[in-house]
Specification:
Elements (H helix, E strand, L loop, with lengths): L4 H6 L8 E4 L5 E3 H17 L7 E5 L4 H12 L3 E4 L6 H11 L3 E4 L4 H10 L3 E4 L7 H8 L14 E6 L9 E5 H14 L7 E4 L6 H13 L3 E4 L5 H7 L5 E4 L1 H8 L14 E4 L6 H11 L4 E6 L3 E5 L19 E5 L13 E6 L6 E2 L3 H6 L7 E9 L5 E6 L4 E3 L2 E3 L1 H9 L4 E11 L3 E10 L7 H8 L11 E4 L13 H7 L13
Parallel strand pairs: 1-10, 3-4, 3-5, 5-6, 9-10, 9-11, 11-12, 12-13, 23-24
Antiparallel strand pairs: 1-2, 7-8, 8-17, 13-14, 15-16, 16-18, 18-19, 20-21, 22-23
Bound molecules: adenosine monophosphate (AMP).
């Protein structure tokens, strides 16, 4: 059997006229169109000398041509390497030098800047824009649509995705054909996707969420997606009248809740709302249920592993929890120092093993070895616990743990208490260098617009709720928390901004 992801997605397609993608501009792309487009592009890749195993680095805006290029690359047995269109030349230099692609595909406006970088590693540069123009697109139009999908084994590479790298150098996660195909197939089952589904696709496609979870799952189920260039809350609400599923990061749900058009009626045709890539506040979950009658289904995954756990389709979707392990995936919680498995309801390091877990970091064998246990479990770097029903609760990245006076403080525990206070929208708790405690627990808090809550109020309210060592030494009010495009709070930025908080005399916060 050909284990190529492309074959596993499309070999048993029964109806090529079925709709695969719709664009807001009204273009309708059938499965047959998408497969033919990918065939043309795959022929061009082969003609340009791209061989099995070669990397194809792609910095192109989210678009159907870009998605077709992903499929073409996989089909030609090359390795798709998507790059955030926001990356500057300086950043691209690192990724391209590290990955040594055979081909770099970029927007025509970037071609001149990228030429010198590509030349360093002997890569060709081709162009493709979101409208389907550029040298690669032109060559594709002249190429044949038929292409024999190259045979791959389960363990061969299909893609490299660089981790967001908030601590240290960004690492290339090597994902195999089986990693992607097995995860997509398991999610189709768990989330009950069928060919009747219409996904609102508003996520970027340079990240595991929009590229693999959203696109692979939709295509494998023979469903269709409305492919939006970016998230637009008003438009998403309008589309809910003819879609069935939304996949989003928590920020989507927060922004949708701010829109008065979001109501029971506007969501009544929808079947499922899925959230991931960052923690969904329990409050947001509850508010969403109250406003729409739908319980958001939260799941947990990462670049290196695809999806690991999911709240159930049937059964309790618990606010603040990410559900049990997906079928075929093993999750355990261990002592971070010794690796010994811990009992239920004990906080430790989350580790996962399964067909979804990546092959290792690109050209970083030592880093790879350090993050796997001898029995094959991957050390995720996330701290959490498992409850009696095997639902996983995430407490944040291990690197965000605060150690104050020698004691561990889990930011999530403190954040949950602060978030529950009247007048508070959300908070981020970080450790900041402190002359007496090593690190001082520090809370950055976003208040409701008209709320009069003060630093003293917050500290006072926590007195009966948290042990003294867990309570913030300082509470600082901010207008908003810094977030990356996937909605993750960038605690590294906060730590830098407030690095000298306890060495300077910051005024009390009114
Ligand atoms: P990325 O590799 O960019 O997908 O980021 C993966 C990280 O995002 C995980 O290791 C978690 O720290 C975090 N994450 C993903 N999904 C969730 C979730 N549902 N709740 C909390 N954190 C999450």
């Amino acid at each position: 059997m050909n284990a190529n992801l492309f074959s596993r997605l499309f070999d048993d397609l029964d109806d090529a006229d079925r709709l695969a993608i719709e664009t807001p501009g009204g273009r309708r792309i059938t499965y047959g169109d998408l497969i033919a487009f990918s065939g043309r592009l795959a022929n061009v890749l082969a003609a340009r000398g791209v061989k099995p195993g070669d990397r194809v680095a792609v910095q192109v805006e989210k678009s159907v041509p870009n998605l077709a290029l992903y499929l073409a690359t996989v089909r030609a047995a090359a390795v798709y390497l998507p790059l955030n269109p926001a990356y500057t030349l300086n950043e691209l230099d690192y990724f391209i030098t590290d990955a040594e692609p055979a081909l770099v595909v970029c927007d025509p406006s970037k071609a001149d800047g990228l030429a010198a970088i590509a030349a360093k590693v002997g890569a060709r540069v081709e162009t493709l824009d979101a409208g389907g123009k550029g040298s690669l697109a032109e060559a594709a139009m002249a190429a044949q649509p038929e292409f024999d999908t190259v045979t791959r084994a389960n363990d061969d590479l299909a893609a490299i995705l660089y981790t967001s790298g908030t601590t240290g150098r960004s690492k290339g996660a090597m994902l195999t054909h089986d990693n992607l195909a097995s995860n997509a197939s398991s999610l189709v089952d768990c989330w009950r996707f069928t060919d009747q589904d219409v996904l609102i696709h508003a996520l970027p496609i340079y990240h595991t969420h929009g590229l693999f979870v959203a696109s692979n799952v939709t295509l494998l189920a023979r469903a269709s997606m409305i492919f939006l260039p970016k998230f637009d809350p008003g438009l998403v609400i309008e589309l809910m009248t003819r879609a069935t599923v939304l996949m989003g990061v928590p920020t989507f749900y927060i922004r949708l809740l701010q829109n008065p058009a979001l109501m029971h009626e506007s969501t009544s045709r929808m079947r499922l709302f899925i959230s991931g890539s960052a923690p969904l506040l329990a409050d947001t979950h509850r508010e969403w249920s109250a406003r729409t009658g739908h319980a958001v289904l939260e799941r947990y995954g990462m670049t290196e592993t695809g999806m690991n756990t999911s709240n159930p389709y049937d059964g309790d979707r618990v606010p603040g929890a990410v559900g049990p392990a997906l079928p075929g995936v093993s999750v355990r919680v261990t002592d971070p120092e010794t690796g010994t498995e811990l009992p239920r309801e004990t906080i430790g390091m989350i580790e996962v093993r399964g067909p979804n877990v990546f092959k290792g970091y690109w050209r970083m064998p030592e880093k790879t070895a350090a993050e796997f246990r001898p029995d094959g479990f991957f050390i995720t770097g996330d701290l959490g616990e498992m409850d009696e029903r095997d639902y996983v609760h995430i407490l944040g990245r291990g690197t965000d743990l605060v150690i104050t006076g020698g004691l561990n403080v889990y930011p999530k525990e403190v954040e949950s208490e602060i978030d529950a206070l009247p007048g508070v929208v959300e908070s981020a708790v970080i450790g900041v260098s402190h002359p007496d405690f090593g690190e001082g627990v520090t809370a950055l808090v976003v208040r409701d617009k008209d709320a009069a809550v003060t630093e003293a109020d917050v500290l006072d309210a926590l007195k009966d709720r948290l042990a003294k060592f867990k309570r913030p030494k300082r509470v600082i009010f901010v207008d908003e928390l810094p977030r990356n495009t996937m909605g993750k709070v960038q605690k590294n930025i906060l730590r830098d901004t407030y690095a000298d908080l306890y060495r300077r005399n910051w005024p009390a916060q009114p």
